[in-house]
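Q: What residues go here?
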């Protein structure tokens, strides 16, 4: 059993939901996996009968000892925060467990989209390979979502799932202290993002650079806990003005600090969860890692949300911008990775309202196809600067920031 869940987010409160006692009409267990014929029968029921069936399904779960957690979430960002916080708590258990989250204020269609997306994620072996803790989970809707807005979370016994990485244990890594990490990240952000100490900058624009940056810290190596921290940051940004928080830098030092593939999978999951409900129309993400290498980020030759443009696009972007590329070799262009090489893994969450509207241009790739690209006015000056900067100078600047960690 779960000992407690606590308050996962100041916008979310979870409490045990007690179903009013009444004459029970026991629902058949097959309702949890209703086939098409059974689903049609349920749809034909009147609303009163559906409500009775829903209440009795919840009561059955309660009698079985399954925690019923009523969530006050009324927006998709608080929904995600509640879900991932609960999954993070369940991940701490070594044995199988079940929990039921009740979202009375969230449309069932929104819950269905989340469940469907998780089902698709579980089939993507290239992702799950680097996110083994997610393989323990099954996420479904109570009664296939035909009766009420309740999500069932099942987690398998850890011994039944092959352990492939140390991160799967979800342990806090003691060598990463928040104070040292924040000092290192602030030095990096000042140098590269804000551009106060160097002429190389990602370029958030004048408004973006002036807006206050807040730093948050997540010490866990577990992806569910990381997603929970990420959505708590989103909730905080949604509740405050851009004068209070312009951007939020979430530091996740224990997420693949020595495993870029693990970090890439987590960054893709973060972007995926944000884009699920079009959160990318409100926020942009910027992913950082000490060994950042765009050439291994999938998709390699297509844009990846929160990442640099594909390496194969750099010269075509420069050409489209009217820049000289004759003197630039492929190796020098790889210096662009230093725009995202930070002392620790981190995600910068940026309000789109602080960014200039992106200009979209058509570029011609070396192998012939035409693609649409944006951000040339930001990336091209930086690509050119970095290409003529000595690699050792860039590495020395990063090493100096990493030194803050010791």
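A:
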């Amino acid at each position: 059993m779960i000992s407690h869940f606590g308050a996962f987010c100041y916008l979310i409160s979870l409490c045990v939901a007690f179903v009013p006692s009444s004459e029970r009409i026991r629902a058949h267990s097959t309702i949890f996996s209703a086939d098409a014929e059974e689903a049609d029968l349920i749809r034909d029921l009147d609303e009163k009968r559906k409500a009775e069936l829903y209440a009795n399904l919840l009561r059955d779960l309660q009698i079985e000892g399954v925690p019923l957690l009523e969530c006050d979430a009324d927006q998709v960002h608080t929904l995600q925060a509640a879900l991932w916080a609960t999954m993070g708590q369940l991940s701490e258990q070594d044995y199988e467990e079940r929990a039921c989250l009740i979202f009375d204020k969230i449309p069932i269609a929104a819950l269905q989209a989340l469940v469907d997306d998780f089902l698709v994620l579980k089939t993507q072996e290239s992702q799950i390979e680097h996110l083994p803790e997610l393989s323990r989970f099954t996420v479904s809707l109570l009664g296939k979502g035909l009766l009420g807005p309740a999500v069932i979370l099942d987690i398998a016994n850890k011994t039944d799932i092959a352990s492939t990485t140390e991160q799967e244990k979800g342990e806090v890594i003691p060598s990463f202290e928040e104070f040292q990490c924040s000092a290192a990240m602030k030095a990096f952000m000042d140098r590269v993002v804000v551009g106060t100490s160097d002429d190389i900058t990602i370029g958030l624009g004048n408004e973006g650079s002036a807006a206050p940056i807040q730093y948050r810290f997540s010490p866990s190596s577990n992806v569910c806990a990381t997603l929970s921290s990420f959505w708590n940051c989103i909730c905080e940004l949604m509740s405050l003005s851009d004068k209070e928080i312009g951007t939020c830098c979430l530091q996740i030092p224990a997420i693949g600090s020595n495993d870029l593939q693990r970090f890439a999978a987590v960054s893709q999951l973060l972007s995926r969860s944000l884009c699920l409900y079009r959160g990318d129309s409100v926020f942009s993400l910027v992913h950082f890692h000490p060994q950042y290498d765009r050439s291994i980020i999938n998709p390699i030759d297509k844009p990846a949300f929160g990442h640099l443009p594909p390496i194969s696009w750099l010269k075509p972007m420069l050409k489209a911008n009217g820049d000289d590329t004759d003197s630039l070799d492929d190796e020098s262009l790889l210096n662009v990775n230093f725009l995202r090489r930070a002392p620790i893994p981190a995600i910068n969450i940026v309000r789109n309202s602080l960014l200039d509207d992106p200009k979209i241009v058509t570029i011609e790739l070396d192998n012939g196809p035409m693609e649409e690209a944006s951000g040339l006015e930001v990336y091209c000056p930086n690509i050119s600067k970095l290409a003529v900067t000595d690699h050792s100078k860039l590495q020395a600047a990063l090493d100096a920031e990493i030194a803050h960690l010791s």
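A: Context that may help when evaluating the design: The chain has two domains: 14-163, 178-405. Confidence is low (pLDDT under 50) at residues 1-33, 164-174, 201-209.
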